[in-house]
Amino acid sequence: MAATFDILLVGAGHAHVVVLRQWAAHPVKARRIALLSPSPYAWYSGMLPGLLAGHYRPEQCRIHLPPLCRAAGVEFIQGTLDTLEADKKKVRLVDETWLQGQWLSLNTGSVPRLPERQQSSIEICPVKPFADFLLTVKRWQQNPAPVAIVGGGAAGVELALALAHQTPSLALFCGGVLLRGHLPTLRTRALRHLHQRGIQVHEHCAVDTLTGDRLMSGQQTVWQGNRVIMATGPTPLAWWQNSGLQCDPQGFIQSSATLQSPSHPHIFATGDCATIAGTPKNGVNAVRQGEVLANNLTHLFTKHPLGRFKPATSPLALLADGQGGALMSWGPLTGEGRLAGRWKDFLDRRFIRHHSIDKWA
Ligand SMILES: Cc1cc2nc3c(=O)[nH]c(=O)nc-3n(C[C@H](O)[C@H](O)[C@H](O)COP(=O)(O)OP(=O)(O)OC[C@H]3O[C@@H](n4cnc5c(N)ncnc54)[C@H](O)[C@@H]3O)c2cc1C
Predict the structure, then answer these.
(1) What residue stretches are annotated with the FAD/NAD(P)-binding domain (predicted)?
(2) Rounded to whole angstroms, how far apart are CA atoms 6 and 74?
């Protein structure tokens, strides 16, 4: 028999952490609610480059979930979803137990796209799950060797700048231009920082195969070595497509402005696993979705109309430069320096403090 909940939150992504914080302040009374998460910690992605650069300790970059859940009146269940049966509102965990929710909310993030391997000896380290990524990089830091990073978005750039001083040589590959979708002036600033730190940047160089100890772009060998970090964008997971939920053409879960599945309105989906019209997948939008989600899940029981999510029109982007400063863009403006770094540090620490019940005193 499946344990049954009024609301089952699956995954402790950025949006659900915000929901828990809001419910800790204003609990949803007389409802049985649970959070399912593989780990008792939720990592805050914005601080991971700073952690790798040695500016933070691990416990400063993560939120301890069981106390936050207790404060929010939510049961914490440690486990990993394996299968979702959307029609039956049921999930099966990897350990084969079943959970059921009258309402389900999915915020499970995603994993990076991996290249094809052909008898390759290269150790691949995807940036997610964060806990596994951090363990691998920590092991590498004890025995430095050349590293290639595949993925030229904000995460790839920040990771390259964080690891530059710890790695004998570092190469960064992107399929198109660096920081696609960001302002050209931010790209220029990032390129200058990367070059100053001795990082080889390969734009318009899509890595598709690993053969032996070589990275291949089509038929061309573009790098040789043994360690590769995959920081390519989110890729769809099989369980989304097998769930019965409506997915977009790439395979991400379709979600509406009220953050509900159009095919299964009793299921909400937010963060990187969801496609919401006009919304780039990033941590900033996941956090903003959390604010709307908390209210909407509460309104389910009060019959209030559900609120609609609107993506930020000109969000502030702050990229850590690996040396305590940051590159920033806001609207049409870009800048860089230690002040921007201090601002990023303030915002990131504030997020952790705000969501860590053990730090509220
Ligand atoms: C190095 C790095 C730096 C970044 N910096 C920034 C930044 O500064 N600003 C920004 O906006 N974005 C940034 N991003 C992007 C950002 O990390 C993602 O967009 C964001 O994490 C998405 O959050 P989410 O809420 O979808 O879920 P996530 O934060 O990815 O969390 C998903 C959670 O679901 C859990 N989960 C996964 N699978 C299952 C399962 N099967 N069952 C149960 N639980 C599951 C995971 O354990 C995890 O806790 C960065 C990314 C990286 C890699």
Answers:
(1) 5-290
(2) 11
Give exposure, 100-124, as e/b (b: 16+ Cβ within 10 Å). bbebbbbbbbbbbeebeeeebebeb
Distance 129 CA to ligand 1 centre (A): 8
pLDDT digits (tens, 9 = 90+) for 297-310: 999 988 889 999 99
pLDDT digits (tens, 9 = 90+) for 178-223: 999 899 999 999 999 999 999 999 999 999 999 999 999 999 999 9
Atom of ligand 1 nearest to the CA of 39: 47
Among protein residues, the one whose CA lies closest to atom 41 of ligand 1: 81
Q: What is the CB neighbour count within 10 angstroms for residue 81? A: 21
In order of their start, the domains of the chain are: 3-38+79-110+236-312 (3.50.50.60), 112-232 (3.50.50.60)
DSSP per-residue letters across 250-291? TSPEE--TTSB-SS-TTEEE-GGGEE-TT---SHHHHHHHHH
Q: Ligand 1 pocket, 179 CB below 6 A?
A: no
Whether the Cβ atoms of residue 271 and residue 14 lie closer than 8 Å to each other: yes
Q: What is the DSSP letter of 114?
A: -
Pocket test for ligand 1, best of 282, 285, 292 (most atoms within 8 A of CB): 282
Residues 79 and 115 sit within 8 Å (Cβ to Cβ): no
Burial of 149 (0-12, 13-18, 19+ CB in 10 A): buried
Residue 47, ligand 1, Cβ within 6 A:
no
Ligand 1 atom, smallest distance to 284 CA: 11
